[in-house]
Design a protein that fits this description.
The structure is a single chain. Helix 10 (about 275-285) links the parallel strand 7 and strand 8 (about 290-295). By secondary structure, this protein is an alpha/beta fold. It has helices at about 1-45, 105-110, 135-145, 160-170, 190-200, 210-215, 215-220, 225-235, 255-260, 275-285, 300-305, 305-320, and strands at about 65-70, 75-80, 85-90, 115, 150-155, 175-180, 265-270, 290-295. The protein has twelve helices and eight strands. Helix content is about 45%, strand content about 15%. It has an eight-stranded mixed sheet with strand order 1-2-4-3-5-6-7-8, with helices on both faces. Helix 3 crosses helix 4 (about 160-170).
Length: about 325
């Protein structure tokens, strides 16, 4: 009986040891979990996830002008000049040559001759006659010839990508590279365009421009930047007279691939128009292209996160200059 009691007591002692050990493991796991949670919380609070608001930087000296076109139209432009490789910036539908205050001094100081222009009917550019609207590629080609630019990098944001694609298939020999930002070229792709219609409600066009163009993180964190963007967008409208414009060429993926121009796609992680999945679908059509998704940025990546945008774009330009 005594031995049996000792055996039972021994079993209880073993159980107690195991229970104590398990309790220690659970307690330790709880401490480790809490430490990890605290570390993660600290990192989230102290990391540079939220980009600092950057006020509009001082612009470098640039020449300005209006290139006369047929039918009373014209193209306003600014040009930083210099002997470095040339870069031409093609603006979005909610912009103009005024769209690039965060790029103008940075690109110029990096050694690039930086040029921006307003398409017909936008800031500083007379719309001209509605019977003679010209086309994207020939307008831009007239400008670069006027400025004496032989070869250049081209960058198009949103609707500015339409002019880029038209130029790429019309004058590919004049391009060093192309960068497409939050845009899908303006070509008809049944798969992509039908999905675009699917993700945007019919009432989308009635929403305020800043809601559609700027990501929610930027609007929440930087109301001062939103106000500056709204002012830029209003000035970019010019006198409001536009007659629309078409491409010079029939744009297809086959023609863009045949142009063999180094390509960089940039998408905003919070872009309502062209989300990253849509931009990746376009990038797959050009197997040797490069892509970048900027987290939390909306349709105006160059405005919301200019440091990331400028650094990435300049690195791409340098590789292909």
């Amino acid at each position: 009986m005594k031995k049996q009691l000792e055996k039972i007591s021994g079993s209880r002692r073993d159980m107690l040891k195991k229970a104590t050990a398990m309790a220690g493991i659970f307690a330790t796991s709880g401490i480790v979990g809490n430490v990890q949670a605290k570390t993660q919380s600290t990192n989230l609070n102290s990391s540079k996830i939220e980009p600092d608001y950057l006020p509009t930087p001082k612009q470098v000296p640039a020449s300005e002008g209006v290139l006369p076109l047929s039918g009373g139209a014209g193209l306003y432009y600014w040009d930083t000049g210099g002997n470095g490789p040339a870069v031409v910036l093609s603006h979005p539908g909610r912009g103009s040559a005024l769209t690039w205050p965060y790029q103008q001094p940075v690109f110029a100081k990096a050694g690039f001759r930086t040029i921006a222009y307003s398409r017909r009917g936008y800031y500083g550019s007379p719309a001209g006659s509605k019977e003679d609207t010209g086309n994207y590629a020939d307008d831009l080609n007239a400008l670069v010839e006027h400025l004496g630019v032989d070869k250049f990098h081209i960058l198009g944001l949103a609707a500015g990508g339409f002019a880029v694609s038209d130029y790429v298939v019309s004058y590919p020999e004049k391009l060093l590279s192309m960068t497409i930002v939050c845009s899908l070229f303006g070509l008809w792709d049944k798969n992509i365009d039908e999905r675009l219609d699917f993700i945007l409600p019919k009432s989308f066009g009635d929403l305020p421009p800043e809601f559609k163009e700027l990501g929610p993180s930027y609007r929440w964190a930087h109301p001062e930047g939103v106000k500056e963007w709204i002012e830029m967008e209003k000035k970019s409208k010019g006198d409001g007279v536009r007659h629309g414009q078409k491409a010079k060429s029939n744009i297809t993926w086959e023609k863009i691939r045949a142009a063999n121009v180094p390509t960089f796609f940039i998408a905003g992680g919070a872009d309502l128009y062209q989300p990253p999945s849509m931009m990746r679908a376009a990038a797959r059509e050009l197997p040797h292209s490069e892509t970048l998704v900027v987290p939390e940025a909306g349709h105006a990546v160059q405005w919301e996160q200019p440091e990331t945008f400028n650094r990435s774009v300049l690195e791409f330009f340098r590789k292909h200059s």
